[in-house]
Every structure is written in C-alpha cells, then in structure tokens.
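Protocol step 4 of 5: obtain the predicted structure for the target chain.
Materials: sequence only (see below). No template structures provided, no constraints applied. The aim of this step is simply to have a reference model before the mutagenesis design in step 5. Sequence pasted as it appears in the construct record:
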Amino acid sequence: MRTMTHRERALAALNHRETDRVPLDFGTTISTTIIMPAYENLKKYLGLEHETKFMVRRARTVIPDPKVLDRFDVDFLGLRLGDFRGGNYRELDATALIDAWGTTWKKAPDGHYINVKGPFQNVEPDRRILETHRWPDPNDPGLYEGLKERAIQMRKASDRAIILDLPVGIIHQCQFLRGFSEWLMDLLMNPEFAGRMMDFVEKVWIRMAQNALEALGDNVDVVAWGDDVASQESLLLSPKTYREHIKPRHRRMVQAIKSLRDVKVSYHSCGAVYELIEDLIDIGVDSLNPVQVSARNMDPVKLKKEFGGRMAFWGGIDTHRVLPFGTPEEVRKEVRRMINILGKKGGYVLASVHNIQAEVPPENIVAMFEEGKSRPDFRVRPGS
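Step 4 output (structure tokens):
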C-alpha cells in the first residue's frame, strides 16, 4: 500500500478503511494530550527546548510543540475555541477563580484545579434560580476571534487532519453547576429541574458549536467533545435514565454539528461505556474515545467484534498500568496488540487512554509512538 498523507490516513481510518499504518493522535483534545510534568520530562529526553504552552491551565494539560508532532509523525492538529471575555469569569486570587458559567475552581496541591462550588449547589431545586442565572453568552466574540485564520494557516502549513475540540457537554457542565451527587439525584427526584438546567446548557453549547463551524467552513475534519457517563466499573446512571433524559439532547448536539458540516464526530467518555455504545452509534457518533481497556466490559476484542465497522475506536493504550509502569518493550507489545485488534479493517486511531500523566517515563511515550508508526501485520496474533 502506498504511503498516505496524514489527512488521508486519518479520514480513511474513521471511514473504516484499512490504511498504510494506523493514524496517531497526540495533543489534539483536552483528553488526548499530556500534563505539564510529563511533557517537561519528554522535552528533556528528546533534547528539545521550547516554551510549554498550556491547553487547559486548570488541568495542567499541554499543547505539544510542532517539533514533537513531527518527531512522532502525528496525524492530527487540534483547534480550540478562545475564552469568554465577559460574564461571570473572574480570578479570586492566585489559587482560585470563577468560570464563565459561575462555578468556582480552586487549585489543589498537585496543581490541578478542582470545582469546589457551583452556583446551584446546596440550594433547593427551584426552576426560578435557573431562569434568573447569568448564563454565558455563546456569541461572545472572544470564543471565535482568530479561529478561522488559525484553521486556514493549519491547512496551509500541514497535511494533517484538523480537529475542532469543543467544550464539555451537558453532563459535565451540569455537574459543575449543581454538584456531582446533587445532579445525579435530580435526574431521579427532580427531573424537571434537571431537565431545565440541561436545556440552558444545551442551548449555549449548540450555539457555540454552530458559530464555530460557520466560521471554519471546510477547514475542519473532526469535531470532538466529551460527556463522561461511566466509572471504571459501571455507568454513572442507568441506561434507562440516559435514554430518557440525556440521549435526546446528545442527539440534538450531534445533529447540530452534522447538519452544518460533513465531519466525523468523536465522543469522549471514560470508563465502562459498553452498554451505551449502541446508543452512541444511533445518535450519529463516529468514534469513541478513550477506549479505557482496563474498565469493566471494555475488552477490545469484544468491542471490535460487536461494533467494528459502525464505531471507530480512539485511544486504547493503557495509562492504568502499561504506560506508567511497563517497560518500553511491554509498551511496544501492547501497541501491537491494540493495532492488530482494533486496527483491522480500519476504524482505529492510536492514542493513550486519556492524558499522559506525570508517572509515565518519556521512554514509554517514545516507544508508544515509534511502534505506532510501524506498518501493521494483521497476520500476527493480537496477543503477540
């Protein structure tokens, strides 16, 4: 097979066609990148010197430098919206801030920011507080300033596929606003309140997505966004609750994207999402990230057998044990295993399971991408 361009390889894989090698992702979205301490170690190991740029300061995630992308032959480039200029946002001090939605975040000892107080936390679920809340303006010009120009420059400078990484969805945002446990309880005990809150968040999110896509035109190939629905062991809510309250809204979010642009939609949820993969396919999701292979019911052989050809898988290289604690050869073996399972007949983008953490040695990061660049041999047994 001839050598493909990065964009050809990426889109062919997402269309379930075999490629010259699997496409590689590093640093394109808030859940497929690396945190700052691990990146600094990687830079030192590679002998590179450049400024480290944050993707999301709260999470200490990094935008890898083009030199790193070239070194690993990564197939995608990430594009993110700008920041809200107005609304609720303000910094309280050097360790705390209030975001545009009104949620307070405080810096933890390890440098991450934790949401400590939402505007609807510890209050009675009265719909009137939702109606009078100062919701973010999805038409805020700060979100889109320079977005089209950056995308055009990316197209000119590289043959990589471009991913628009949209903000988190209704589940995450409602949990930040209301509190994780309160929002989950509301779905069962106060569904009208929970539904109205989701209505507001959905409206803002869809308008932001529409504005971004209208600005970008054809300068985008994939739209990525996330809404965690699972833990390591199970779903966070029952399939029935998801299908009744969340799925119709997720469907509208996906339809808002696909009605404007012919793009692939990549959906992120950590954990044991097996029971909802059929639902995600039904609403139009094209790929699932991060394929947390250490979670219950997320065996890659089973996933490929049941959903291959209908759902692409994005991620899969274990950050629970293999990347942080394995040897470089164990990492290479795991990469070959994932490629030979998930990459057969296309439908696989190789990346780590969520962001690469501080414990991961740079030797293992290099081993993952170096092995990922090799041409697959599907005659090799998946375990070898």
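Step 4 remarks: The two ends are 23 Å apart (CA to CA). The mean pLDDT is 95.
Proceed to step 5.
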